[in-house]
From TrEMBL:
Keyword Iron-sulfur tagged: no
Protein name: Purine nucleoside permease
Example of a GO MF term: catalytic activity
Signal peptide: 1-24
Keywords linked to the UniProt accession: Signal
C-alpha cells in the first residue's frame, strides 16, 4: 500500500491511504469513538480529547486517511475505531459523513460513542463531571431577537418550523442506561485547582465533587455564555420536552443527524466532560469570565479528559467483549 506524509494538527505523520481498499474486505466496525480535537501528538504529551482513547485502543494501529475527513481513522483488531472529527457542527458532520460513506468500513452493526469536553451550568454541574446524553438539542434552528425588542422578561427564542426532525434527538434510553450502569463505580479524577475554583460559586452542584450524570447536551456553534443564555438553553430543553440542560457543546446533535440518515440513532451514545461553567461567578461579569486573568481559570482540564475515557471505556469494552449479544441491538436488560 502506498504511503505519504501529511501534516495534521501540527504533526507530521506517515499515513496509509485507502486507495484500493474498496476491493478488500471492509473493516467491521463494532464501536466508533469520536473526539473533536487533539492538542498535539496522539500520545505522550498534553492530552486533548483523543489521546486517552488513542493510548487505550490504537497505540499499534496505522492511521488510515479518509478523503473528506479532517483526521485519519484508527482501528484495532477488535473492531474499535475512532477519529478526530474537528470542532463545530460543519467540521464534525462533514468528517463523520466522509467516514461513514467510505467503503473501507462496514458500519452495518456499529455503535457510536461521541465524546469531548463541554461547559455546564453551575446550578446543575461542576468541573470534572462526565454527562451521558439522554437528549441532543441543536441550540440554533430558530429565531432570536434582542431582549429589548421583545416582551420584558420573556424568552428571546422561537423554534423555526421545518426543523422538527433535525433539532432534537432522544438517544436510546436502554443504551444510556447501560452506559450509566457500567460507569457508576468509576472513580473520577479531580484537581486542587478545580476544587478551589468551585468554591467561587454558591451553588451546591458547582461545589460538589465530580460525578457521572445524565441529561441534555445542547449543541451550538455559538459559544453562548452568561446566566441569561444559560436560562435560555434550559428554556429550550423544556420547550422540546427534553431532560434538563446539563452540557453545552458544539457538535453532538450534528454528528447524530449524519449517523441518523444512514443508520438511525438507536446505537448512538454521547458523553461530555465539563471543563468550564457556562457563566461567571457572582463577583465577575460574563466578559470577565470569558477572558479570565492569569491564574483565574477553572483548572481540571487534564483530569476531565481522563475522566471522559474512564467513564466511556466500560461501555466500549462490554460491547466488544459480548459482541454476539450486542450485534443485533442493545440488550434489553442491564446486568453485570
Amino acid at each position: 500500500m502506498r504511503t505519504f506524509t501529511k501534516t495534521l494538527w501540527g504533526t507530521s505523520a506517515v499515513v496509509l491511504t485507502l486507495a484500493g481498499a474498496a476491493s478488500a474486505e471492509p473493516i467491521e466496525v463494532k464501536v466508533f469513538i469520536s473526539a473533536m480535537f487533539e492538542i498535539g501528538e496522539n500520545s505522550g504529551d498534553r492530552a486533548g480529547e483523543y489521546q486517552h482513547w488513542y493510548e487505550r485502543y490504537w497505540q499499534d494501529a496505522a492511521p488510515q486517511e479518509v478523503p473528506g475527513a479532517i483526521a485519519p481513522v484508527h482501528c484495532n483488531d477488535e473492531g474499535v475505531c475512532g477519529s478526530v472529527l474537528g470542532m463545530g457542527k460543519v467540521n464534525a458532520a462533514a468528517s463523520m459523513q466522509a467516514i461513514l460513506l467510505n467503503p473501507a468500513y462496514d458500519f452495518s452493526d456499529a455503535y457510536y460513542l461521541i465524546t469531548g469536553v463541554a461547559g455546564t451550568p453551575p446550578s446543575r454541574g461542576t468541573i470534572g463531571d462526565v454527562v451521558w446524553a439522554s437528549w441532543l438539542i441543536d441550540y440554533d434552528l430558530g429565531h432570536r431577537w434582542a431582549p429589548e425588542e421583545g416582551e420584558p422578561g420573556e424568552p428571546v427564542f422561537m423554534p423555526r418550523k421545518g426543523y422538527e426532525e433535525y433539532r432534537v434527538h432522544e438517544l436510546n434510553p436502554n443504551l444510556v442506561a447501560w452506559g450509566i450502569e457500567l460507569s457508576s463505580d468509576v472513580a473520577l479524577k479531580d484537581s486542587e485547582e478545580a476544587q478551589t475554583y468551585r468554591m467561587r460559586y454558591p451553588d451546591a452542584a458547582a461545589q460538589a465533587a465530580p460525578s457521572v450524570k445524565v441529561g441534555t447536551h445542547m449543541t451550538g456553534d455559538t459559544f453562548f455564555h452568561g446566566p441569561g443564555l444559560s436560562d435560555e438553553a434550559q428554556y429550550m430543553a423544556e420547550l422540546y420536552e427534553a431532560d434538563d440542560y446539563l452540557v453545552t457543546e458544539m457538535e453532538d446533535n450534528a454528528i447524530a443527524q449524519v449517523i441518523n440518515r444512514l443508520h438511525g440513532t438507536d446505537r448512538i451514545a454521547a458523553i461530555r466532560g465539563s471543563v468550564n461553567f457556562d457563566q461567571g461567578h457572582p463577583d465577575e461579569t460574563t466578559l470577565q469570565h470569558l477572558d479570565p486573568a492569569p491564574g483565574e481559570t477553572a483548572g481540571g482540564f487534564a483530569e476531565t479528559v481522563e475522566n471522559i475515557a474512564l467513564v466511556g471505556a466500560p461501555l466500549v469494552d462490554r460491547i466488544v467483549a459480548d459482541w454476539e449479544a450486542w450485534k443485533d441491538g442493545v440488550p434489553a436488560v442491564v446486568a453485570d
